[in-house]
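Working notes for the structural subgroup meeting. M.R. asked for a predicted model of this chain before we commit to crystallization trials. I am recording the input and output together here so anyone reviewing the notebook later can reproduce the run.

Input as submitted:
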Amino acid sequence: MLSAIRASKVDLVLLAVAIVWGASYLSAKAITPFATVPAMLSVRFGIATLAMIAIWLIRRNKFSKTDLMLGTLFGLTQSAIMTVETFGLKITSATNAGLLISLTIIFTPIMESAWKKRWLPRSFFLAAVGAIVGVGLLVTGNGIQEPNWGDVLLFIAAIVRAVHVTAQGVLTKDREASSFNMILMQCLTATVVFFIFDIPGAFDAIATFGPAQWVGTLFLALFCSVFAFVAQLWAIRRTSASRSSLLLATEPIWAVVIAVLFGGETLAILGIIGAAVIIISTYIGQGIESKHREQLENS
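Returned structure, recorded in token form:
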């Protein structure tokens, strides 16, 4: 009973992350025309880093060697994800991007199973494929555009994101490490990386951003970075990378819901069916993964 309550708590945290990331598209849309990708991301992660440093000064949790090393590593992989994904989104359509990024659902359990040399049941992968089909139905209201270099970048981003999530789950398992400290290092590393790539652009963005851009940047920094990264790592360390990726697959649903409610977009019947398929596939996949993990723990 207690383990079921803990699992539900972890699932709710991951769903909250999916909702926040789903809301990030509208915020990013208001910012990208006003700054280069590295400049925008350096300001975003710079604010996130300052916020986390302020919290750390209150908590004063000592940094371990693991915190520093893994936090820096995760910062580099996160920088790679954000760079490739953002440049890809500038070239390809949101439809193609949604489909390609959703491939993380498949890549993550494959990588995690190969790393641990313990394969998940075939039924889990069927559920993951079902979730991807749901994403396809959800985002194809305007049709799928012809492939381009942006699609290649998004495909690479899906692979890197899967590596990132798998590494967080495997490398932090059973280690004495602070999730908060690791994410602080992750944000600091990302800030330095993006700032170095466009120092003048970062200062220009700070000087020229209007109220709308600052509101969007603060949301991306505090909710989509600080909260989401800490919550994601906290949850992954208490479940599995595969289960996490499946729950985070609901992100497109929240992106569409928020776009409909606040962005003036519409959702066709095909999109509603797609959302239902994602929810059903995710629910089935959760059950399969939980049962499989319990069997391993009891064997």
